[in-house]
Amino acid sequence: MNQKTLNLELSNDQFADLANALEDHRDYFKKRADEAMLGFGLDTGYWTSRSQEVQELLDLILLNARQDH
Questions:
Q1: N or C: which end of the chain has fewer CB within 10 A?
Q2: Number of folded domains in the chain?
Q3: What rounded mean pLDDT belongs to the chain?
Q4: What is the number of other CB atoms lying within 10 angstroms of the CB of residue 51?
């Protein structure tokens, strides 16, 4: 998988918006995983792994933000 390097300068509001958007995206995948357990859409494992990937991204962003202060 190719990797991208991002160097961003965000206002506090922009950072909060980014973090909130990632949380919403993660929660969407979790909801899809729950629906998959009922037999809808792709399998639960796929949606669970996607939510974990988004959580890892969110953790990385939060960690980097703390280190910059």
A1: N
A2: 1
A3: 89
A4: 19
